[in-house]
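It is worth pausing here to work through a concrete case rather than discussing structure prediction in the abstract. The textbook approach is simple: state the sequence, then state the predicted structure, then interpret. We follow exactly that order.
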Amino acid sequence: MRFSPALLLPLLVAACATPAVERSPLAPALRAEIYGAARPATVATLVVVLHGDAGADHYRFAEAAARAIPGSVAVALLRPGYADAAGRTSPGERGAGTGDNYTPDRIAAVAETIARLRHRYDHARVVLVGDAGGAAVAANLAGIRPALVDGLVLVGCPCTLPEWRRYMQRQAPGQPWAATVASMDPLKTAGGLLPTLRAAVLVGADDKVTPVPFSRAYAEALTLRGIATDYRIIPGKGHDLLGDPEVLAATQRLAAALPKRI
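Step two, the predicted structure:
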């Protein structure tokens, strides 16, 4: 059943019988939909999913992950300033979507929500899944708050930010891609990643928005740091990759490979 917000615990809570519940009214936590019926003390894997810059289209993947990974709960977060098709919103400013919203304050808002979730599911390994711009946020977060993340799945990541923004300026010259931004570059924050992290980096071979080189460079940086990295180029696929079975399979493999928390 769906809980009334008045009945929710002070922290974000998992569903009892159906895949999702509404988040608690706790501010300034980001809006979250939580999938999975496991009790918090029994959750072995917490999957947190971040959508891309174009909007919130990550709920279906979160639900699929909760069903596919044993003993898991999956949380679809709305990034700061975003609203979904149902009108649910997260506090903050969305930005222009030109690589301008991977900033320290927005990353901190995501990190704080994950920290609260990690406290709630204190026996769970945290797998952070990011799609497109959400992948850039996820990669930066893992670099500057490494203790929050055990596994990282990046899908179509603009992971070399200055080069990607120059590329996009050529593709869409009428947009403000050349404007100075305060966003963090995942390739630079990669130095803070823990060597115990496990990662999966996936990109469509035909991706015209975040082409292969922007993911490859980051995957190579992870490998050089000794981080176990599952890097895959998916043939015949473009930028809309989150719903592809390869992404779910990579998330399953990564979750299964993580050591259990005591």
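Step three, interpretation. The chain is about 30% helix and 15% strand. The chain has a mean pLDDT of 89.
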